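Q: Convert this sequence to structure tokens.
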Amino acid sequence: MIVIDISVGPQVSMDYVRQLIENTPELYDRLLGVLEEIAYQIAEMAKDTCPVKTGRLRDSIVVEVEENGVAIKATVDYALFQEFGTKYIPGQYFMTNAYDSYVPLIESRIYEEIYDYFKGVTG
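A:
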């Protein structure tokens, strides 16, 4: 199984974002909504670019909302080998590449939500 976690909770590396969301549940919910929206886009891109022989791998790619964020998972047991390769087959990096292509959007949308939230709070 491969899991890509996109978190807005304690695992967030940006200290200032973590402090903001710990004290503002409404902002946390808004950020979680943004991450969920983008996670579905990442999952679709991963499905479009993963290797397909039977469709099991493609169909196993799912989005799950968790306590502190969103996880994009490829749940078949051989997903890891398809993603990163083996001694005999090269990695396809369908999950990694899909996620990497959305990092700039994730960052900009998080900053936009934070800005909009505080703009609305301060008037």
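The chain is about 60% helix and 15% strand.
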